[in-house]
Structure formats: C-alpha cells, structure tokens
Design brief:
Layout (H helix, E strand, L loop, with lengths): L6 E10 L12 E8 L5 E6 L15 E5 L6 E8 L11 E9 H7 L1 E7 L5 E13 L4 E10 L12 E8 L5 E6 L14 E4 H5 L7 E7 L7 E8 L1 H4 L8 E4 L3 H6 L8 E11 L3 H6 L3 E2 L5 E3 L1 E2 L2 E3 L4 E3 L2 E2 L8 E3 H12 L4 E2 L6 H14 L7 E9 L6 H11 L4 E7 L6 H6 L19 E5 L8 H9 L2 H11 L16
Parallel strand pairs: 17-25, 25-26, 26-27
Antiparallel strand pairs: 1-4, 1-8, 2-3, 2-5, 5-6, 7-8, 9-12, 9-16, 10-11, 10-13, 13-14, 15-16, 18-23, 19-22, 20-21, 20-24
Organism: Saimiri boliviensis boliviensis (Bolivian squirrel monkey)
GO cellular component, one term: mitochondrion
Subcellular location: Cell junction, Focal adhesion; Cell membrane; Cytoplasm; Nucleus
Length: 492
C-alpha cells in the first residue's frame, strides 16, 4: 500500500557560529537539503539562498516537504561556503552537516543540533536550528511595498535598503519568514511585488503581531538597522493602490538619543491582497494535462546534419516524421534514438534556442484558452556544449511567461558552467538586453551525480521543481483548474 501524505511541513533554517573559511571576510553560507530514500545514497533536493559574509545566517528560503507519519524520512542539512558560481558543491568549502529524521523535527517543532564534519568531529561551535510548521491552509498574501525618506546610513552614496518580515513564535521569539531584494543607492525604494504564505507570516491569525525591519545592506555583512514597525494582517489588508497603508519606520536607539526625532522614514504598503492558491493536485485533478502524462513524448534532436540534404538542424523529429514526432513511452524514445543515430551526422554548432522556441510555440497556443488546461515540459539531454547562449537566454526569458518548464540533464564530464548559468534560481537569469525572467523555469541536473544512485533518485530530482513551477505559473495569471471551479481564487 502506498504511503499517504499526512501533511505538508515548512522548514525554516538558521545557523550559528559557522566556521570562517574566507580570508579578509567571512564565509558566504548556504544550506542544502538532502534526502535518503534508498538507505545508501543521499541526493540533493533544494538549496537556500546564499548569504554573504555571515557566520550566523537566518535563511529566508524555506524547505517544504511532504510528511509521512508511517515512514522514516531521513534528512541531511549540509552547510557550504559558496565562493563561485558553479552548481557543484565539491569545489566549495564545507562548513558542516546535520543528519536527522523529519519525524524528529516535527515532534520537536524546533530542533538545534551541532554541525559535524565528514570525519565525525564537531565543526567548531557551529550549530543548525530547524523550525517546523505544518502548512494548514493555502492562502497567500501578495504585497507591493515602497518607502520614502529613509535615513542615509552610508558615508558615500545612499542606503541600500531591504525589508525583513518576522513572525512571533509560541515561545515569544521572532522568526524571520521573508526577505526582499536589496534596492541599491536609494532612499525612496520600490520593491518588486512578492508573496508570503499566510501560514508563514502569522500562522493564519489575522491579529497576530508581525514585525517588519528595514536594513541598509553592506557587503561585509554588517547590515545597519534603519528602523522597524509592528502591525497585523487586519491592518495590512486595508491597503490599496488608491489608499496605501503607511507606517513610520522607527529606530529606537536613535529616538532615545535625539529629542527632535520623528522617524527614520515611512514604509508604504501599496497592496496587500489575500488569495487562495490552488495546489498542484487541484490542477492535475481538475484536468490540467502535463504533456508527458499520456505516455506519448514528442522527441527531437539538435546539432546534427540530417538526410537527405544533410542540412544542419536544431529541431528535427527523431523518428523523422514532422507531422507526428511522438514516441510511445521511454522505450519508444530509446528505439527512435537508436534508429536515428546511424542516419545522421553529429554537427556543430549546438544551438538550444530553436528547440526551446519550438516548444514555446505550443505553449503560447495553449494560453489562448485562458484556462489551466495544458503545461509543457521540455527535457534536454546535453554534453554541456552550447553555442547560442545569448539566443537561449532570450528564449528562456520569453518562455518564462508561458506554461512551460525546461529540464536539462548534463551527461559526461564536460564543464556545465553554461547550463548552471541558465538555471537562474532566484530570478537571476536575464536576456542580453537585461530583461529578467519573470520566474525560474530551468532545472539543471548533472547525471554524473546519480550514476550509482537508484533510478528513482534521478527522477525525483529532475522533477522536483515541476509542481511549484506549474502552480506558480497558473496562480500568477489567476488561471483556474478547468474542471474544478470550487477551488476558485478569491479575494478575502
């Protein structure tokens, strides 16, 4: 009998007293979550953001995991000092790890453990704290926020402000739940719209106190507090573009020193809208078709001369049937590949953009229906060579507006730097003209990490980001499951 998911759990990570591996600055840590399903092999599931110059990081990105009461779910949290842009962890400094089960975290609600090195010795005085919260509802809060006349904390130039949201836990402590981007050199910043789950923000309690802090970002990690305010969702949700809700940003130390002190700026909430987000299962059960769920896969090749004219092509059907490029299941793809290979000549350059644009045309056609009826997943298997990086960047930025995702599996021992660059976690991928991808749609996985792993480990890792990408797209455009109007998004 298959295990039944009891609930979804959100894990919030912080560390203390990390090893300092950098000369002239501090470590730049991130935390990696590994799962162990086979009893032998650990495989990576997700990463937090990287925090520069910080030995006591509080990570904004959380891990959301399905909790199965009857299954021992082994987890490992690895902390690394990241000083380069490659996806490989082997060339980064290891700061320590902690192994435990999800059950131990859930039963404790807040688990603090020492970080250990690979040799079993403590990683100095380093420790990790994992806080767990059950996700009880699927409401999210959409924010648009700005500020004006913030204090200038910089001697040269202006402050580089960002916001942190904190909720109060049952033991009275504050837990950071969201961090905005940094706006450089600006005392009147306007932050990008963002969303926070209502459960993360205030446990779903509209009258629970929320603390918002405004900081001036510094490269050396010594961020200066500009000011803070406290509020509740009841107050925040009064905000609208025509009538923003505004809060004085107060720096208590500065107020105590200066009698004429008024505030350190004003934070303006221009929009605060609560919506109910449909889940991945809502869309699948409501009739959304992922284009690989019916066992028929369109399979294309790229980077080869094809008969009879032997022209170079970057989007040819592997079965040489343009009107019906579908193969029956994985076995059908393998058979088409074996039959195709002797008939073609592998040939450079290796261009990704034509095949991405090819699938994007299907995805664009699906948007005409104005429903969440179809979502497209493009799987690219590559040795890492790419000659049209700029065109591919533009193609991905364009595709980020469409119902599609791209999975890239890297085979062999080549340098996958370009592939890692395309996997723009955190919205970092830009087109050559500077346009930012509105969402992350690329998942890169190096196959060599899974050569000795059970076959399901690769599949799980490859597909790990698809559910949230599907949900993210349809919720962004407020598209409902085609057969399930009961899950309608609503403004509360």
């Amino acid at each position: 009998m298959a295990a039944q998911c009891v609930t979804k759990v959100e894990l919030n990570i912080s560390c203390a007293n990390l090893l300092d591996k950098d000369i002239g600055s501090k470590s730049d840590p991130l935390c990696v979550l590994f799962l162990n399903t086979s009893g032998q092999q650990w495989y990576e599931v997700e990463r937090t953001e990287r925090i520069k110059n910080c030995l006591n990081p509080q990570f904004s990105k959380t891990f959301i995991i399905d909790y199965y009461f009857e299954v021992v779910q082994k987890l490992k949290f690895g902390v690394y000092d990241i000083d380069n842009k490659t996806i490989e962890l082997s060339d980064d400094d290891f700061l320590g790890e902690c192994e435990c089960t999800l059950g131990q975290i859930v039963s404790s609600k807040k688990l603090t453990r020492p970080l250990m090195l690979k040799n079993g010795k403590p990683a100095g005085n380093g420790s990790i704290t994992i806080s767990a919260e059950e996700i009880k509802d699927n409401r999210v809060v959409l924010f648009e926020m700005a500020a004006r006349k913030l204090d200038n904390k910089d001697l040269f130039g202006k402050s580089d402000p960002y916001l942190e949201f904190h909720k109060q836990t049952s033991d009275g402590n504050w837990l950071m739940v969201h961090r905005t981007e940094v706006i450089k050199n600006n005392l009147n910043p306007v932050w990008r719209p963002f969303k926070i789950s209502l459960n993360s923000l205030c446990y779903g309690d509209m009258d629970k106190t929320i603390k918002v802090e405004c900081y001036d970002y510094d490269n050396d990690g010594s961020h200066d507090l500009i000011g803070t305010f406290q509020t509740t969702m009841t107050k925040l949700k009064e905000a609208s573009r025509s009538s923003p809700v505004e809060f004085e940003c107060i720096n208590e130390k500065k107020r105590q020193k200066k009698k004429s002190y008024k505030n350190s700026g004003v934070i303006s909430v221009k929009q605060c809208e609560i919506t109910v987000e449909c889940t991945f299962l809502d869309y699948i059960m409501g009739g959304c078709q992922l284009n690989f769920t019916d066992k028929m896969f369109p399979a294309f090749g790229f980077g080869a001369q094809i008969p009879p004219q032997w022209q170079v092509s970057h989007e040819f059907p592997m079965n040489f049937n343009p009107s019906n490029p579908y193969c029956n299941g994985i076995q059908g793809i393998i058979e088409a590949y074996r039959a195709c290979l002797p008939q073609i000549k592998l040939y450079g350059p290796t261009n990704f953009s034509p095949i991405i644009n090819h699938v994007a045309r299907f995805a664009a056609a699906a948007t005409q229906q104005q429903t969440a009826s179809q979502y497209f997943v493009l799987l690219i298997i590559t040795d890492g060579v790419i000659t049209d990086l700029d065109e591919t960047r533009q193609a991905i930025v364009n595709a980020s507006k469409l119902p599609m995702s791209i999975i890239i599996v890297g085979v062999g021992d080549a340098d996958f730097g370009a592939m890692e660059f395309l996997d723009g976690d955190g919205g970092s991928l830009r087109s050559p003209s500077g346009e930012v991808a509105i969402r992350d749609i690329v998942q890169f996985v190096p196959f060599r990490q899974f050569q000795n792993a059970p076959k399901e480990a690769l599949a799980q890792c490859v597909l790990a980001e698809i559910p949230q990408q599907v949900v993210g797209y349809f919720n962004t455009y407020k598209l409902l499951p085609p057969k399930n109007p009961a899950t309608k998004q609503q403004k509360l």
